[in-house]
Amino acid sequence: MENLVNTFLNWDLIWGTFPRLLREGLLNTLAIAAGAIVLGTVIALLAAMLLLSQRWWVRLPARIYVDVFRGLPVIITVMAVGVGLPAAGVRPFGTSPFGYAILAIGIISGAYTAEIFRSGIQSVDAGQMHAAQALGMSYLRAMRLIVVPQGIRRVLPAMTGQFVKDIKESSLVYLLGLAVGQRELFFIAQEEVARTYNSSPLIAAGLCYLMLTIPLTHFVNHLDRRLRGAR
User: Fold this and answer.
1) What is the dihedral of CA 100, 101, 102, 108, to 10 degrees?
2) Which of 118, 126, 188, 227 has the fewest CB atoms within 10 Å distance of its CB?
3) At residue 177, what are phi and psi to the nearest 5 degrees?
């Protein structure tokens, strides 16, 4: 029992790992997650609009994108983007893995968020569109000004839940071999585990992730209650 406790709860190692986790890992985790969320939201809005098209050939590319990247394990997408693209000569971010990390998580986030947006937009009463068009608005203008904002407002809790997922999935980008100064929480914890042969640094990293995800989770629940009460 003592050996088990020392392996996971060596407080000297936990406290010793915290400064590096907070100074470098936390900032890089937030940077990767924030970049992925912005990219994923932009992709998701475009994909959701395509999914709502009346023409099958417009819907098809978006449907393939959503089904493929929701169906693939995250680790495969991270490796395909972060290792496969540079190996194929496609290097929009040069040799730095940081940009590929954001791209990989953003692509995955976009696929999930697209379905969230689509369901939110479809939940808006069709009468809203008819009323806007009766006032002389075009279809695209009515979608942009009337329907889409209402749809997004209805799915804010689900979107925030996806953002929590993006933060957790950012831990997989350690596979890309981030450079010094770019390492996120899990990468730093893994280095300390390899150095000390003790799993306590993983507990330290887990606590840092909880510092991010628990407040966001409670914010999601609070937002959901607020929106339900407003309806």
Assistant:
1) 100
2) 126
3) 70, 60
Condensed to tens digits (0 to 9), the pLDDT of residues 209-220 reads 999 999 988 887
Q: Which of 123, 113, 170 is nearest to 150 (CA)?
A: 123
87-96: per-residue pLDDT in tens?
999 999 888 8
- Please enumerate in sequence order all residues whose Cβ is within 8 A of that of 35, keeping only pairs 6 or more positions apart, or say none: 102, 106
Q: Which two tokens stand for residue 119?
A: 């369901």
Contact in structure between 167 and 149 (CB atoms under 8 Å)? no
The class that CATH gives domain 2-230 is mainly alpha
Distance CA 143, CA 10 (A): 56
**DSSP 3-state percent helix, strand, coil across the chain (nearest 5):** 85, 0, 15
**Cα distances (angstroms) measured from residue 135 to each of 125, 128, 131, 132:** 17, 11, 6, 5
Spatial neighbors of 184 by CB under 8 A, at least 6 apart, are 25, 28, 29, 32, 170, 171, 173, 174, 178
Q: Considering the entire predicted model, what is its pTM? A: 0.89
Q: Which helix (H) or strand (E) holds 82?
A: none
